Amino acid sequence: MQDIVAPRLPVLVPSEPAPAWFASPSTAFWPSTYWFWHNIPSRAVIAAQLGAMLDAGFRTVLIQARLAFPRELYLGEDHLDAYRFAVGEAKRLGIEVGIYDDYSWMSGHAGGRTVAGHDALRERHLFWTEVTGADGRASVGGIVSFFMEGLGRAGMAWCYEEGRVAWDEWRIVSAVAYPPDIADPAVVREVTARFLATGDEGCEILADMAEVPPDWHVAVFVSARCRTSRLVNYLLPETARRFIEVGYEPYRAAIGDFFGDPVKYMFFDHPYCGFYRWKQHAGDLGNSLLHADRLVAAAAGLGVPYGVVLLSLIRPIGPATTGLRAAYFALYNGMLHQTFLGALSAWTRQHGLGLAGHELLAHVGGWGLADGFPSLDSRTTLGVDYFGVEAFRTHTTVDASNYGPQISARMGDSVARASGRSRCIVEQYSAARDPRVPFAAGLWGLTLEEIRAQALRHHLFGARQFLFHAFYQTSGSDGDSEPFSNPRFDFPPGINFEPWFPLFADFAAESARLSAFMEDAAPLRTVALVYPLSTIWAEGGGHPCNTLFGAWARFLSEEGIGFDVVDDRALAGGVIEEGGLRLRSGAYRHIILPGAAVLPDAATLAALAAFAAGGGQLTFARPVPNRLAESREAGAERGLPLPPGFAGEEATVPGAGWLAAFRAAASVSPDIAVTDALPLWRWAGAEESGWRVAAFNDQACERRVSVTLPDGACAVSRWNPAAGTIEAVPLEGGAGGTRALTFAMEQNELLCLRIEKGRGRPPSVTAAAPAGDAAPGDGFAVALKENWTLRFDDAEPVPVEVDRGWERQGFPTLSGVGLYACAFTLGDTGAGPVPHDAAWELNLPALRAGAAVTLNGVFLGRRAYAPYRYPIPRGLLTAGPNVLGIEVFSTAANEFYAGTPYQPDGPEASGLLAPPVLACRARLGG
């Protein structure tokens, strides 16, 4: 028999009705979705699919033409006519619209329209090579693009005319000679170089070695235009103007009268900068840079020859290296931002729209700053300076990859708060988890449980809205395993083609209510985790600061310690007060420098010293600050003269010592400490009348959570985002004492509390060790192992075992909804008579991936995440006979991956995976 878990504490009592802002949140909090168009849909399809989105709980939609959509039809008359109808239908239904601003992704090319007839706007890149012999010969060749390696034939056909990379208009930018060890960049000499040959594949170069000492090296920098590329040169103002003309203006002409209602913003999606490598590539810069004459002219302000600047990017040239790199990348990124994003921002403001979207996030999918795209040098992208990008947006947006905890939402919220806004939109996409499978094959095996857990974590980390990638117009075709060109393998799942999609609306409402619950409370965050931009500009993605930042971000998140990511350039502008540092984003008593070897300037160093001297807790991880980005003087790399008071715990990785010091110093924020080894994701915020606290247990075990209330009288209520209800939590212990409430949080449980202000310190939330087995009670449990049938659609039911999935019982390629049925009497199960005063519950120990249950014709509920428990109303269960029906909603994986190489380990589990259990809890009262 099975022990029955005792009733959970505290007992909740009914309270006031939920306010409308919580029961029925506004649009900004509900999930949004991309709507992938693979062809021009009919009006009937548009109306039906928008209706399905609304029913599922999506309140914002962004239409996106994907690679299956004929590129020649993009922004044509028929496309815009269908688009206008869709926007009008969205308005009728009360759905808001964001305009996704390009074909497939990589904003700027407008499906090739930007460069059509304007070859000068095609991407131009800077390459470099070294002369390897005394004859002065060098070459650049074997150029490989990110797309050739990652996106295959479909990606190449999309991005390149002729489906191949071909170069022309080769130019020599600079050639410089230098000794093996450079102490002073003044020794670097310019030399003459010329082309021996140029072509589609590369170039041959001859440098004049007549006056170059024998032991010296010669580096040659050349640029070329990719004559077949549809990608653009973001450094050119003409590019942005042309993109707006052919990519934005058609929308204004077609649906401009809908701007503002329901169209709220334009949405850009990580503009790409090529990311080329080549056979002769070497040095400290990971891939090619965009190039333009106006960048060369602007770099004259750096005070040294352009060839010296470029040489500093690929190898150290002495004490000036750090300063030149930081200055160059600040110039490069600033020009990219202002030239391209500045133009988009100006256009949207002119036409009454916001600007949303995101740059390429080098950290996407992880905690470390280079975890997402380790093969790309983020310094060469339009991103990396996330705080700089934010200056042009009205809606902070970030990317998130796959379904594990990651930094994206916290980074987005931090960037927003640094700009005077708050929270963010998180775009969530799926890539194949198995390294044997192309990433674009995606996750048709994704479950709603995984989506819910990820969305709840995003909200607790700072997301206002969850943007799903994507709702599909079509599910693609059989017999075609080509990534991208077959919609079926273009970053699935198409959520509406998942059999469990009918359960999505429940999650959507819960997501919206949690977000609304958090909106009006200011997060309690006393830790500033410094984003080491100056160090990244100087050292790149391989520097320890990238992984150290990730280690600290993960540690703080898992420990439930509130923190903001803070721009290193903002520190100097802060105000020291009451033992802390006040910035626009918040006030911080703790500053962590995760391997920030380079600080922006002397003012930053002074601000940190003043912070430490004033009682702030300063933590730095090796390497410690030893350079200033503003300095190019001799001796600059020998170490900074750290002033008195600039001393903190040198914690290479976070640990118990740092945590103990933090707990001792944390007197103004909740002490959110996990006493077991498992993370509990938490958030706490302050409002005028008190505090709000939320916690989510995504572990596969029950946890006991203790909430310590402040001294003095206060009231506590529990807010249930899933049901939209509020219940009062009775308090004991008198009006004057400190009280603690203990909650048993089961797997996947979300706890939301509102605490009215009393006296003393704010509440603390502590997760105790897993609850383990409950104490024996007077109940019992019966497993229903036999007499089961399974039916799909209108087919005849067949006998089935419930200890393993249907994919192992003759249905390996079937995805859908299976109806399990079992007729039983309690006598058959050995349970005997039904106690008249007992409470029964149905427990489904294991299934994939969602279930709806009826007993004797009465609906008991539906659920898409563990634990699958369904209370049975008193009197419904009889001695017999009883009929139990369980609809199990599978994923789409076994149908859509059948016959492809994308399921190398065979079919995924589907249906019931363990016998259902009837649990009886006796003597609970009437």
From TrEMBL:
Gene3D superfamilies: 3.40.50.880, Galactose-binding domain-like. It comes from the Bacteria. SUPFAM superfamilies: Galactose-binding domain-like. This is Uncharacterized protein.
